[in-house]
Specification:
By secondary structure, this protein is of the alpha/beta class. It contains 16 helices and 5 strands.
Length: 387
């Protein structure tokens, strides 16, 4: 009897080609993403800007920093003829804002003059600031390179200086002054991850809720009876979305409130309103995608198989935990069609960078476009299926 039951289960699964395909595809996709995420080290982009006589010594600093692990030297797109300090700083901040560099070192001619005056001198470090791990890696590499830079700096010894005097020339370590474009050195590691919790969990829970519940409606014949009633399919979908949205909204309120309590920085009412807009868009995308997955599945087992296939790639490729820029270009391309990629960017723009929501309009339009595109696909699939 046990053998018969087992053989019946095996035959049922083998008859369902889609289930067999899921069983083979899901582990391959998930394990590939895990391998790439673990194998690829997060690299830090460091730029160096020197002016005046300090141009003679930037090569020593660049060489010392480039020897550090996981550090890549980049050339900031800053006008070489620009000498105005304020304009230079503005250009440096723009480079950081566009993530063309994570950290930029600025060495002006005053640094050399201070060394000649037997002062430590100050090296200015401009930091993007929203990625604590990147910041820590860059500052560690710079700290290790400071001794090499100090040793390369020239010293001035008077002609009548004695041997004892010559041994007391300026060998003081340089000072560093950190300038954060966003946040501060008080940012914790958890502060970087907390903003992505609301869109992820709202998407995850809403997708599961709508997929399983809608599949149950089909199995029980409820949807079939609704289809023969004098009501349009769009009204049916709107009704399901309205019903699921109530429970998803409760979950969203709990998750967002929890995140706001945990963050170490202050949050304004306007930022809370911005978070609500992003959360609602992700809730709609999750609902629509869950309904579509339920339509594409022939049974509850197939519907469950959609969960890891849809959710897990977004964990690895949406810049949620690992910096997607450190992944191979192929995986970077795959991150763009993922809704969570754009939601995470918008959430960090609002919370970590303090930007108004309208500056994240590309991400908002993309999320809205996802919802409309999935709705169109849902309507198309529904017309072709018989219940």
């Amino acid at each position: 009897m046990i053998r018969w039951i087992a053989w019946r289960i095996i035959r049922e699964i083998l008859r369902d080609r889609r289930t067999v395909a899921f069983l083979l595809l899901v582990p391959f996709v998930v394990m590939s993403l895990i391998y790439v995420a673990i194998a690829e080290d997060e690299t830090v982009k460091v730029g160096v800007v020197a002016r005046g006589a300090m141009r003679l010594f930037d090569a020593d600093l660049i060489d010392a920093i480039s020897r550090e692990d996981n550090v890549v030297i980049v050339q900031p797109a800053i006008d070489d003829d620009e000498t105005d300090s304020d304009k230079l700083v503005a250009q440096i901040k723009e480079e950081l804002r566009q993530r063309k560099a994570d950290v930029i070192l600025y060495m002006d001619e005053r640094l050399l003059n201070e060394r000649f005056d037997n002062k430590p001198g100050t090296l200015h470090i401009y930091i993007e600031g929203t990625h604590p791990t990147v910041t820590a890696t860059a500052l560690g590499a710079i700290a290790n390179a400071m001794d090499d830079l100090s040793a390369a700096m020239p010293t001035v010894i008077d002609a009548d200086c004695s041997a004892h005097c010559a041994n007391s020339v300026n060998s003081k370590p340089m000072n560093t002054e950190e300038h954060f474009l966003f946040g501060s050195d008080d940012y914790r590691m958890v502060d970087f991850f907390l903003p992505v919790f609301p869109p992820f969990f709202i998407f995850f829970f809403t997708f599961i809720l709508s997929t399983i519940s809608f599949q149950r409606e089909r199995v029980n014949g409820t949807l079939e009876r609704l289809m023969v009633a004098p009501i349009g399919f769009g009204q049916i979908i709107a009704g399901y979305v309205g019903g699921f949205a109530i429970f998803a909204s409760v979950q969203a309120t709990i998750i967002v409130s929890y995140v706001l309590v945990l963050v170490s920085f202050s949050v304004t009412l306007s930022q809370i309103a911005d978070l609500a807009v992003i959360t609602v868009l992700m809730m709609l995308v999750g609902l629509m995608l869950g309904l579509l997955a339920s339509f594409l599945a022939n049974n509850e087992f197939q519907a469950i198989q959609f969960i890891p296939l849809v959710v897990l790639p977004q964990i690895f490729l949406s810049d949620m935990i690992w910096d997607i820029e450190s992944f191979p270009w192929f995986f970077q391309l795959l991150s763009y069609p993922l809704p969570l990629t754009h939601a995470n960017t918008a959430m960090r723009n609002v919370l970590l960078k303090g930007l108004p929501l309208w500056q994240s309009w590309p991400q908002l339009l993309t999320l809205l476009g996802f919802a409309l595109l999935i709705l169109f696909a849902l309507m198309t699939v529904a017309r072709r299926r018989s219940f």
